[in-house]
Amino acid sequence: MFVSLVIVTVFMSAVLLVSAGAKSLRTRHITEQMTTLGVPQSMMTYLIAAQIAGAAGAVAGLRWGPVGIAAAIGLTLYFAGAAVFHLRVGDRKGALPAAVLTMAAVALIVLRAATL
């Protein structure tokens, strides 16, 4: 079970860091998407920080379980919120990845709790 936890943790951390990097570059695609979703540019720093903290917490959670569970709960809320923001503007295509990542974050909670 711990191997599954490591695989999901590495996957989530990679996705989070790539996403945070894309947001920090403020590419046209990301800027347009955030504008469409109604996310102010002033919030980008907080979203980037949340993603980096989530990745760090998930990795640290491999060593210390409670940190991993807390990080996974935060990631679940982050991605569920992202899915809601996409659905709110009718962006079903954008909501799908957020929903999948919400389920992956829930899997992190379950796997980490099972390996304590």
What's this, in brief?
The protein is mostly helical. The protein contains 5 helices and no strands.
Task: For the structure shown, list the relevant keywords.
globular, mainly alpha, 0% strand, DoxX family protein, membrane
Q: Rg, please?
A: 14 Å
Mean pLDDT comes to: 96
Total domain count? 1
Q: Percent of residues in helical segments?
A: over 70%
The SSE order reads HHHHH
With helices defined by DSSP (H or I, 4 residues minimum), what is the helix count?
5
Structural class: mainly alpha
Q: Stretches where pLDDT falls below 50 for ≥5 residues?
A: none
Biggest sheet statistics: none
Strand content: under 5%
Tally the beta strands. 0
How far the N terminus sits from the C terminus, by CA atoms, comes to 11 Å
Shape: globular
How would you portray this structure in words?
This protein has 116 residues and is mainly α. The chain has one domain (2-114). It contains five helices and no strands. α1 (2-25) runs antiparallel to α3, α1 packs antiparallel against α5 (92-114) and α3 (44-60) runs antiparallel to α4.
